[in-house]
Amino acid sequence: MENLFQDTLLQSAGSEISISRVLRKLPETMFILYMLIMGVSAFTIQPEEHPGAAENCQFRGKYFKTDFRVEGEPVVLRCPQVQPWLWTSVSPHTSLAWRKNDSARMVPGKEETRMWVQDGALWILPALQEDSGTYICTARNASYCDEMSVELRVFEKTEASLPFISYPQILTLSTSGFLVCPDLSEFTHNKMDMKIQWYKDSVLLDQDNEKFLNVKGTSRLLIHNVSVEDAGYYSCAVTFTHEGMLYNVSRNIELRVNKKEEETIPVIISPHQTILASLGSRLTIPCKVFLGAGTQSTTMLWWMANNTKIENAYQGGRVAQGQRQEYSENNENYIEVPLIFDPVIREDLNTDFKCFVRNTLSFQMLHATVKEAASFSWGMVLAPLSLVILVLVGIIWMHRRCKHRSGKAYSWTMFKTGH
Ligand SMILES: *[C@@H]1O[C@H](CO)[C@@H](O)[C@H](O)[C@H]1NC(C)=O
Ligand SMILES: *[C@@H]1O[C@H](CO)[C@@H](O)[C@H](O)[C@H]1NC(C)=O
Ligand SMILES: *[C@@H]1O[C@H](CO)[C@@H](O)[C@H](O)[C@H]1NC(C)=O
Ligand SMILES: *[C@@H]1O[C@H](CO)[C@@H](O)[C@H](O)[C@H]1NC(C)=O
Ligand SMILES: *[C@@H]1O[C@H](CO)[C@@H](O)[C@H](O)[C@H]1NC(C)=O
C-alpha cells in the first residue's frame, strides 16, 4: 500500500518534470510557429482581402479623448493613430477598418445602414444612445498593422446631460475673448459659407451687439468685456445635408469665467537666516513667501544647495524638497515649500542652502545656514551622572569595607572565645 502510494508520487513527479520541460520549450515552439506564420503571411496575405484579421496586429491603446455627442446628430470618428494632416491622403496601400469592440463584424464600407466607413472615417448618422461604446480602428498595410480604440458616448440632449457633453472653455473677467465651436471639421469643408449659430442657455444669439459677435467665416464667437454673468452653457450648431436630409450638428460649451490674475512682488518671510539643529535629528525648514493679493499660480518657489538643485545634490533623498502649499490667510496669499533633512549631518553645516522665488515681476533669493545647536548633548548629561555614580560606588565600597572589618573582628572574638 505504502509502496503503491510512493510509486504514484514518483509518477506524478515525473509527469510534472515532463510538463515543465514542455513549458520550457513552449516559447521556442511559439517562436518557430510565429516565424513560420510571419514568413508565410508575408507572401500570401493581402491586407485588403483580410480586413478583419487581427492577428499580429499591435494594439496601441485607447485614445485619451472620449467623444461626447448628441443623439440624432451625425457622428464621425477618425482613426486616432492616423495624423490629422494625413486624413485626406492616407496612402492607398493602407486600409483603415472599424469595428465596435464587442462585435467581431467590421463596419461595412457602403451606406447600407446608419453606420458606414468612408475615407477611413467611421460615420454614424443619425447617432443613437445605444451606439455608445468602444470602437477599434485597424490600420494595415502589407508590412504593418496597428489598432487603437476610441470611446463614443451618445447622450440625449437634456439639461441634465449638459455637464457631460460640454467642452469646457475659459475666459478672463473684464477682457474680451473667443468661444470656439470645436470638432466641426468634418461638416464645414467650405469655410467661407460656414454658418454657425450660437445659443446661450438655448436662446439664439442672432444679433451681433456690443456683447457678442459671431465672427463670419470662422467657428468663433467674440465676447466683449466678459462678466461673471456670461459664464454658463453655450451651444453652437451648423446644419449638414446628407441625401436630402437636413441634420443639426451641435456642440456644447461650458464657459467658465476666471478672475484676472494679477502679480505682486513676492516677499520671502521665512526662514530666518540661521537655523539651529542637532546632528542626527530630523529638520524641516519652510520657505514661506507672502504675495498679498497676487496670484500664486505664476509664482515659482524652489530650494538649492551649493547652487545645485536639491534632487541632484541629494540623489539618495536624505535632503528633499517637500510638497508645495498654497494658502490664504485674511485674504492674503502665501506659498510655502519646505526643505526636509532626514537626518541633519555635519556636511549640512557647511552647505549653502538658498530659497528662490520668481514671477514675472521679481526674482529673489534668501540664504539659510544650518548651525549645530548647543543645547543637548550626552556628554553634558553623562558628566554629572558619572560623578554621582562615582560617589555612590565610593560610599558603597567604604560601607562594605567597614562591615568587613567589623565582621573580621567578630570572628576573631568567636575564635578566641571558642578556643
Ligand atoms: C469593450 O469595451 C468595454 C468598455 O470600454 C470593456 O469593458 C470590454 O472589456 C471591451 N471588450 C473587448 C472585447 O475589448
Ligand atoms: C506600412 O506602414 C508603415 C507605418 O506607417 C510604413 O512605415 C511602411 O512604409 C508602410 N509600408 C508600405 C508597403 O506601405
Ligand atoms: C465692462 O463691464 C463692466 C461691468 O460688467 C463695466 O463696469 C466696465 O465699464 C466695462 N468695461 C468696458 C471697457 O466696457
Ligand atoms: C436644429 O437645432 C435648432 C436649435 O436647437 C432647432 O431649432 C432646429 O429645429 C434643429 N433642426 C433639426 C433639423 O433638428
Ligand atoms: C557644499 O560646499 C561645501 C564647501 O564648499 C562642502 O563642504 C559641502 O559638502 C557641499 N555640500 C554639498 C551638498 O555638496
UniProtKB/TrEMBL annotation:
GO terms assigned for molecular function: interleukin-1 binding; interleukin-1 receptor activity; interleukin-1, type II, blocking receptor activity
Keyword Repeat among UniProt keywords: yes
Alphabetical list of PROSITE patterns matching this protein: IG_LIKE (PS50835)
Pfam (any one): I-set
One GO CC annotation: extracellular region
Domain Ig-like: 51-153, 163-254, 266-377
UniProt subcellular location: Cell membrane; Membrane; Secreted
Membrane topology: Single-pass type I membrane protein
Keyword tags: Cell membrane, Disulfide bond, Glycoprotein, Immunoglobulin domain, Membrane, Receptor, Repeat, Secreted, Signal, Transmembrane, Transmembrane helix
Gene Ontology biological-process entries: cell surface receptor signaling pathway; negative regulation of cytokine production involved in inflammatory response; negative regulation of interleukin-1 alpha production; negative regulation of interleukin-1-mediated signaling pathway; negative regulation of protein processing; protein processing
Classification via SUPFAM superfamilies: Immunoglobulin
Entry's family note: Belongs to the interleukin-1 receptor family.
Known function: Non-signaling receptor for IL1A, IL1B and IL1RN. Reduces IL1B activities. Serves as a decoy receptor by competitive binding to IL1B and preventing its binding to IL1R1. Also modulates cellular response through non-signaling association with IL1RAP after binding to IL1B. IL1R2 (membrane and secreted forms) preferentially binds IL1B and poorly IL1A and IL1RN. The secreted IL1R2 recruits secreted IL1RAP with high affinity; this complex formation may be the dominant mechanism for neutralization of IL1B by secreted/soluble receptors.
Protein's UniProt name: Interleukin-1 receptor type 2
Organism: Canis lupus familiaris (Dog)
Gene: IL1R2
